[in-house]
Structures are given as structure tokens and as C-alpha cells.
Specification:
- It is a single chain.
- This protein is of the alpha/beta class.
- It has four domains: 96 residues, Nucleic acid-binding proteins (OB fold (Dihydrolipoamide Acetyltransferase, E2P)), CATH 2.40.50.140; 97 residues, no CATH class; 190 residues, P-loop containing nucleotide triphosphate hydrolases (Rossmann fold); 156 residues, P-loop containing nucleotide triphosphate hydrolases (Rossmann fold), CATH 3.40.50.300.
- A seven-stranded parallel sheet has the order 12-13-11-14-15-10-16, sandwiched between helices. The chain has a six-stranded parallel sheet with strand order 17-22-21-18-20-19, sandwiched between helices. Strands 3-4-5-7-6 form a five-stranded mixed barrel.
- Helix 7 packs across helix 8 and helix 19 runs antiparallel to helix 21.
- The longest helix has 27 residues.
- It starts with 21 loop residues before the first helix and ends with a helix.
- About 1% of the residues have low confidence.
């Protein structure tokens, strides 16, 4: 394959490499190394210096040493399990090369009698002689060995030598790719080319040089390629012409005036941004991001009203039926009978479902709530003007794009997430969308008071919740695991349910990941209707249902959770006007890091600030399970330490968009960084 200017060489199958058969390729693919380009990010963790050659008499036992010797005799015993030996020497002494599981022909080939050979390996001493067992490097050409050899986190079945040979082979055959960055961008990285940066990345002396120009240039490439894709999606959506919605501000303001609370400044600002999108001839594709309890739902419902008054239908999708039912009840309360609202539920009777489907198509229904089922092929809308999706922070780029296409040209898209995340993370995940943020909490909503408590003080906690139950309040009790684990000292939800049920008979419910969906909905509904006082649960209660009467949450082994997850859990209380409390339980053996994390939560109710700290402590990919959601984690770029590169990428994207620059020159970059879904649309 000609590779001088051909990026396809880098995207070729691993078996294109010399010395890589199907077996080795399969081992690498298990580590998500699928092509030659992926191997370039298999970075060395350290190196072994084999450049200095020693004489036999100066060899150091237990160390990796390089020595030039002359083989003078073979010893190939015919008894099974005995090693093959090659007796060697230099002018200062004797050295035996010991081989296990090696054939005579191979040994004779690499260590021919009378030839001067350079070998390298770990030195041992046996029978008054130095030995090297299964030497890693053997060659007549000493320059091949007398160098620094990178050490890797090895894939099982692949040796360090193989890794080094593969990487050297790739580096040697790197294509001369045309530069895709502008001169102004290259100046930021000392005008270093992509090829030169890759070469430097794999030189032993550059291991760990994260602040170097070559490293930053490659990290920037990653960030920039991701931002380019988001930009292209935004541009394509903006090109879609739609029928403008006509906002009836009189109706909007009339509804707002009848609310039991005043909208916050953030809510007003966000509503203005959404209305501007609705009135535009360009399709809205917006994310409404807010902290728990910030009032996103009311903004979404006012937006829905504006769309309906403009002659369109609205669909609101939630991850669970109980959340859909809760939103439905709120909408019925604030809209009264002014619009026709329906809930498409799995519990609805067949005839009712049939009528809803019919009336959606006939535009006799203005607003429908439901789970993902409302977007089944059999459900068709007459004039769908807005799709609102709640609590969908794990939607990927491709899923969002399909959603946008499904609604049709005249349908605006509003996604909502109660997952406050740092700006760099938001730019990476949601860069294809316009963003509205609600940080400000409603005035009547009080901060949740947070305490830490030793597990041994559980009797104090029991006395506390007895008083709260007497006051008519409800309690969440969260445990990490469903059952007892012999390996991990976590509390069990089942065990805790049994314990609490003895103290509060018939007042405790249990909810965990193995609870069936119907049973789960029933339990949550009963808890919402105050038929239970305590709900023992695993972390599945995170998703945004309002339980206004629940104002206590107890989280066991709190130090085992991430900060963002703890904040989300804490957000299950404090939804009403009462003072709410969160108790973080832990065992006595807390690390300094764990103490620091819990103190951050105790001292702050700001989800964005907490998430920032969480990312610093745990890393980019672990925030609320984004790693598990299929998010592509950068290979080099770090949103914490490379914040300047994210800002630079954002500025460069804005410049390209403003100048309407042809992005065809970035084709190679986007191909290399696996943005193939979008690249097909690029000339």
C-alpha cells in the first residue's frame, strides 16, 4: 500500500503490519486497538536503556544488560523439559544463553558459532557463570539493540519486543500528511507538524512530557476534530428551514402570572432563548441544562404552551412512566382545560391507547406525555412542532441527530438534563447543540443541609428519623448494593430493608435494580402517595421524580460514590418548601481523599461546582457514568489540564463558522479520529 500521502495506511487492518498475524491482531482488538492508527496511542510508560554495552566480567546480576559475545558451542539435550544452551564468551569471561521452549534451528540462526552477536536481557548467575535466560534482544547488528527500548503496559500474549518493533515500523512508514491547521494555530505549538509530533511522542526521553508543544498539538487535534463534527451538525440543522412559531406573549405572561412562584432570572433568560429559537426560521436544537431543583420543567411547559398556541403539537418524553405521569399531572394543574393533554401509558387500556394514537394523527391532542414509546413508528403526529426529552444526559450525538430527523423540518428539539457538568465536558458531549443553563434556584427552595455520620452512630440516625416520621415526613435510605458482597464491604439494600422493617413495620418499601418495571412503578407511586414512610433503595432513585414530602435522605457508604452522583441523590429531597437533610454515612476508615470529597459536598449545594471538583478527583470519563454510556474518551486530551486547548478549539471553530470556511481540508483529521458518520457529508 502506497502511504506517502495516504491516511488510509493508518486506518488499515493490523495484519498489514509485518510480524502481526491474525492471532496478535485479535489480542490487540480485545484492547480496542482496531487499526494501525489506534496503535499510535499505545504509549510507553517508561523505558529501558540498552545503549550501554558491558563486558562479561562487569555484568550486574538481576539487571537488564547489553553485552557483545561470540557463541562457541551448543548444548541441545534430548531430555524433555531440559533447556537448550549456547555457550558464549568475550575477552573477559564466559556467558551461557539459556532457552526454554525454543527450537534448535531458531537458536542456530540467531546465535551462529563464531559470529560476534549483541544480546540483551536480565542477568543471573549459576554454576560459577553468568547467564541470560531467553534473551529479549539478539542481533548481529548492535545498533538495533544499543538504544533505549520503550516499556509498555503489555497486552497478554504480546511481548515488549513485539510492541517496540510494531511501533517502530509504523513510525518509519508514517505518511506525509498535508497540514490541516492554519498558520496561526500552528504557531501555538511551535509550528510542529503532525508527523513530527507523533515521532516525538514515542521517543523514550519524551515520556510524560504533557506540557510539551508536540503533546499539546496532538491533544488539540483530538479536541478540534470532535468540535468540528459538532459544528457540522449545528450547521446542517441551522440550514433546515422551518415554519416560524408565532409566540402569543399575552397567553404566556398570563400563565406566568398565575404561577405560585416567580420565575428566576435564569428561567426568564432561558425562556427568552427558547422563544427566539421557536420564532426563528431555523430549526431549534437546544439543551436546557440545570441543577437539580432549578425549575427546568416549568420553563419547558411554558415553551410547550407557546408552540401549541402557534398551532402545533408537542411531545414530552421521559425515561420512566412515573416521571411522565408526574409531568402530566403538573401540566393538567397549570394549563387547566385550555389545551388537550394526554398520557400515553403502558397501563392504559387498549381502547384508550387506540384513541390517543388516532387523535394525535387528527391533531385533536395538543400535548402528549410518555416514555420512548411515543416515538414508535405506529404513532404519527399531524403537526408536531416540538419534542422535549427530559433527563436524557446519556443521549449520544448519533441518537440526537436521528431524533432531530424524526421530528421533521418544522419540529424543534429541546433536551433537558439535570446533570450539571463542567463546561469542558459540556462542550465535548453537547457541542452539537445550543445551550441554556439554569443555575439559580427558586427563592422559596432551601439548600439541603448535609451531615456526615459514622455508621456506628446508626442508633442516633434511627431516633432522628422517628421524629421526622412523627412530623409526617418521608425518608430515602440509599445503599450501594442489592445483596451482601463477600469481596466488598458495602451495605446491602435487602439487609437494610429487613433491619428497618423490624423497627418500622409495614412502613418500609424496597427498590433495587432487580425490581421489575411494573413493581417499581407501583412502589414509587405508593411512596409518592405517602403509603410508605421509608424507601430503601439502590441508586436507581437518581432520576428526577419529585417527592415533595420526602425531605430526608440517608446515603450509606457515601465515600464509595462519586461527588456528582451524591449530589444527584441528594437532589431527591428538598423539592418542597420544608428544610431538608442529607446524612452521609461512612465507616471509620476514611482516606484523606474521601474526607476531602465529603467535605466538598457538605459545604456546597452548587451542582456545577461539585461536578468540577468531581472531575478533578475522578477524571473526565467517570462523571455520572459517561464512560459507560459510550462516550469517546480522549486518548491524550485532558479537560482538566488542557482547558486552554478547549477554549482555543472553540475560538477556532467560531472563526471557521463566521468565515464560512470550507472544512474539506480537515477530511484527513476527521477520518483519523473516527468521525466517519459525518465525514460522508463533507466534500
Amino acid at each position: 500500500m502506497s502511504n506517502k500521502n495516504n491516511y488510509n495506511y493508518l486506518l488499515a487492518d493490523l495484519t498489514e503490519l509485518k510480524g502481526v498475524g491474525q492471532k496478535t491482531a485479535n489480542l490487540l482488538k480485545k484492547k480496542r486497538i482496531n487499526n494501525i492508527f489506534d496503535l499510535l496511542w499505545k504509549l510507553p510508560k517508561s523505558y529501558t536503556d540498552r545503549s550501554v554495552s558491558s563486558k562479561v566480567k562487569d555484568l550486574k546480576i538481576g539487571e537488564n544488560q547489553t553485552v557483545t559475545i561470540i557463541p562457541y558451542k551448543y548444548n541441545f539435550p534430548r531430555i524433555r523439559n531440559l533447556p537448550n544452551k549456547v555457550f558464549c564468551k568475550d575477552d573477559t569471561g564466559n556467558l551461557d544463553c539459556i532457552f526454554f521452549n525454543s527450537y534448535e534451528g531458531y537458536i542456530k540462526k540467531i546465535l551462529p558459532i563464531g559470529k560476534e552477536i549483541t544480546i540483551s536481557g536480565k542477568i543471573s548467575y549459576f554454576g560459577n557463570k553468568y547467564q541470560i535466560t531467553n534473551p529479549k534482544y539478539v542481533s548481529e547488528d548492535s545498533t538495533i539493540i544499543k538504544t533505549k527500548h520503550n516499556q509498555y503496559s503489555l497486552t497478554e500474549g504480546i511481548t515488549e519486543k513485539i510492541y517496540n518493533n510494531i511501533i517502530k515500523q509504523i513510525i518509519k512508514k508514517l505518511p506525509n500528511l498535508n497540514e490541516w491547521h492554519s498558520k496561526n494555530i500552528l504557531k501555538k505549538f511551535d509550528n510542529i507538524s503532525w508527523n513530527e509530533a507523533i515521532n516525538k511522542l514515542h521517543q523514550p526521553e519524551n515520556i510524560g512530557k504533557y506540557k510539551s508543544a508536540f503533546y499539546k498539538r496532538l491533544a488539540f487535534d483530538e479536541i478540534f476534530s470532535s468540535f468540528l463534527v459538532h459544528s457540522e451538525i449545528r450547521k446542517k440543522i441551522k440550514k433546515i428551514k422551518k415554519k416560524e412559531k408565532i409566540i402569543n406573549f399575552k397567553e404566556q405572561n398570563n400563565l406566568i402570572s398565575k404561577l405560585e412562584f416567580d420565575l428566576t432570572k435564569d428561567q426568564k433568560k432561558t425562556l427568552l432563548e427558547i422563544n427566539q429559537d421557536l420564532e426563528s426560521a431555523q430549526k431549534m436544537f437546544r439543551l436546557l441544562q440545570g441543577d437539580v431543583g432549578s425549575g427546568k420543567t416549568i420553563v419547558a411547559l411554558i415553551s410547550a404552551l407557546n408552540v401549541i398556541n402557534s398551532g402545533f403539537q408537542v411531545a414530552i418524553m421521559t425515561p420512566t412512566e412515573i416521571l411522565a405521569r408526574q409531568h402530566f399531572s403538573l401540566a393538567k394543574k397549570i394549563f387547566k382545560s385550555s389545551i388537550n393533554i394526554k398520557l400515553l401509558s403502558s397501563k392504559s387500556e387498549y381502547r384508550e391507547k387506540k384513541d390517543i394514537i388516532k387523535n394525535l394523527y387528527n391533531k385533536k391532542i395538543d400535548l402528549v406525555f410518555g416514555t420512548h414509546a411515543i416515538f414508535q413508528n405506529k404513532i404519527r403526529f399531524k403537526k408536531l412542532g416540538l419534542i422535549i426529552i427530559d433527563e436524557q444526559h446519556k443521549f449520544g450525538v448519533n441518537q440526537r441527530k436521528k431524533l432531530s430527523d424524526k421530528g421533521g423540518d418544522n419540529c424543534d428539539i429541546l433536551l433537558m438534563s439535570a446533570t450539571p457538568i463542567p463546561r469542558t465536558l459540556t462542550m465535548t458531549i453537547y457541542g452539537d447543540m445550543d445551550l441554556s443553563i439554569i443555575k439559580e434556584k427558586p427563592k422559596l427552595r432551601k439548600d439541603v443541609i448535609t451531615y456526615t455520620k459514622l455508621e456506628s452512630k446508626i442508633d442516633e440516625i434511627i431516633r432522628f428519623i422517628k421524629k421526622e416520621i412523627d412530623f409526617g415526613n418521608q425518608i430515602f435510605w440509599v445503599c450501594p448494593l442489592i445483596e451482601e458482597s463477600k469481596k466488598i464491604d458495602h451495605s446491602s439494600a435487602i439487609k437494610k430493608f429487613e433491619y428497618l422493617n423490624k423497627i418500622f413495620p409495614n412502613q418500609v418499601a424496597l427498590l433495587h435494580g432487580k425490581t421489575g418495571q411494573d413493581e417499581k412503578e407501583t412502589i414509587l407511586s405508593k411512596f409518592l402517595n405517602r403509603k410508605y414512610k421509608i424507601l430503601v433503595s439502590t441508586t436507581i432513585i437518581e432520576v428526577g421524580i419529585d417527592f415533595p414530602n420526602a425531605n430526608i435522605i440517608i446515603i450509606e457508604n457515601a465515600n464509595k460514590f462519586g461527588l456528582s452522583q451524591l449530589h444527584q441523590l441528594r437532589g431527591r429531597v428538598g423539592r418542597g418548601n420544608k428544610q431538608s437533610t442529607c446524612i452521609l454515612m461512612f465507616k471509620s476508615s476514611l482516606t484523606e481523599n474521601a474526607k476531602k470529597r465529603l467535605n466538598i459536598l457538605k459545604n456546597s449545594n452548587d451542582g456545577f461546582k461539585i461536578s468540577e471538583e468531581d472531575m478533578k478527583l475522578r477524571g473526565f470519563g467517570d462523571i455520572l457514568g459517561f464512560k459507560q454510556s459510550g462516550l469517546k474518551i480522549f486518548k491524550l486530551a485532558d479537560p482538566i489540564h488542557n482547558n486552554d486547548l478547549f477554549i482555543l478549539a472553540e475560538k477556532e471553530i467560531k472563526r471557521i463558522e463566521k468565515e464560512d470556511e470550507n472544512i474539506g481540508k480537515f477530511k484527513t483529521l476527521m477520518k483519523l479520529y473516527d468521525q466517519a458518520d459525518i465525514i460522508n457529508d463533507i466534500v
